[in-house]
Inverse folding.
């Protein structure tokens, strides 16, 4: 998260000092060249990290998805809000893990004919909180209606904060050659339910469990989270280290 802040936030007149800021963290300054949407034009920027969750974790490597909002002051003095999600890749090193690559989200352009489900999701307000990259994914038309309709069904009983939909997620299930459902617009991750972060030990277990079962009832064939549930179709529920901090919902179509 320090790396994302070092690149995506800068005081007036110091945008071009990003490499120095990254180097001061003990990281490779050329990572700035991979920052993409994290470095828009502007004279000044502030950045808020909304959430950071695992995109995958193995013994010696990891993916951390850093979800952020950003406000940039233009040369004419106007301030524009935006943000992105960055897939930060790490490898184990001493004395601490180090960053090897950045993969910022690349949502498509807005669709001229968004589906009814997309319009409804965008109109739900706080019932379905969408960070900038996920919001852009919905507007692009690249998220399947099966995902959007499930979110709308879940929003009838819960408030939820989405971390990632399509863009900003690893292309493959981390550490494998199996394509992830996320880049195909067929999955969504939720990091907060009814104001309670999934990763927080104080969040009631029954809340997470009931949400996971509701996700399965809404059509998800592949529900992952911090607890392994019984029942459902074979293999419908799963839990592993990657999903300790969010609930994953995958859809076949």
């Amino acid at each position: 998260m320090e790396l994302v802040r070092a690149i995506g936030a800068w005081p007036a007149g110091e945008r071009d000092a990003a490499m120095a800021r990254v180097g001061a963290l003990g990281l490779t300054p050329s990572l700035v060249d991979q920052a993409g949407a994290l470095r828009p034009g502007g004279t000044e920027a502030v950045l808020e990290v909304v959430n950071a969750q695992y995109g995958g974790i193995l013994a010696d490597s990891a993916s951390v998805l850093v979800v952020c909002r950003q406000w940039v002051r233009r040369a004419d003095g106007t301030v524009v809000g935006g943000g992105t999600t960055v897939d930060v890749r790490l490898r184990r090193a001493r004395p601490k893990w180090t960053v090897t690559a950045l993969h910022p989200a690349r949502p498509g352009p807005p669709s001229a004919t968004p589906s009814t489900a997309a319009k409804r999701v965008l109109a739900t307000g706080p019932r379905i909180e969408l960070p900038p990259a996920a919001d852009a994914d919905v507007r692009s038309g690249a998220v399947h209606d099966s995902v959007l309709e499930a979110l709308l069904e879940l929003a009838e009983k819960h408030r939820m904060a989405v971390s990632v939909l399509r863009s900003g997620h690893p292309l493959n299930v981390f550490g494998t050659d199996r394509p992830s459902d996320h880049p195909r617009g067929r999955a969504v991750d939720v990091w907060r339910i009814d104001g309670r972060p999934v990763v927080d030990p104080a969040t009631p277990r029954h809340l997470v469990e009931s949400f996971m079962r509701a996700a399965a009832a809404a059509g998800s064939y592949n529900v992952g989270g911090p607890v392994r549930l019984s029942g459902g179709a074979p293999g419908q529920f799963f839990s592993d280290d990657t999903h300790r901090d969010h609930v994953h919902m995958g859809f076949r179509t």
User: Anything to note?
Assistant: The two ends are 34 Å apart (CA to CA). The domain at 2-104 is CATH 3.10.450.50 (Nuclear Transport Factor 2; Chain: A,). The first helix runs from residue 2 to 8.
